[in-house]
Amino acid sequence: MVAAALGLASTTLACSEAVRELRFREELVKLAADVLGEAVHGSCVISTSVGFAALKDNPSALHVRLRAPLEWRIKAYQRDALVDRQAAEKAVKHSDHQRHLLAKAMYKADADDDTNFAVVLDASRFSVDRMVEVLLAAGAHRSATEIMAERALRATSG
Question: Model pTM?
């Protein structure tokens, strides 16, 4: 009798979690649509692990991936969050897992496929200032290229 009650309780809890997860995903999709709707009206930076997939067909989006070796990311997390190595490793691996699940579930995309990105930087090899310089330069180049393409299009159509 106790086993049956525990089984029913765990099933009910699992169903409750599943419903909560589905609602969360629905809200996430709505939020993403709202953000993307605003993003098309001007220049902006969208910092999300699946932005590359959400905007994969947007020609003016510059998809950037910052990556680093697992050990470096664990040490950085450990230092920033002031936790022991075991907690840092668990958090980093959990974050990686969530990123993979989100990209796969929402967009059927591989978050670790570097071909999805125009710029890939190894954060363990650059200072933050240097990464910002590189990204600003990449963004400026992209903007200049887009401006030239628009001018050429106007010249041929007008």
Answer: 0.66
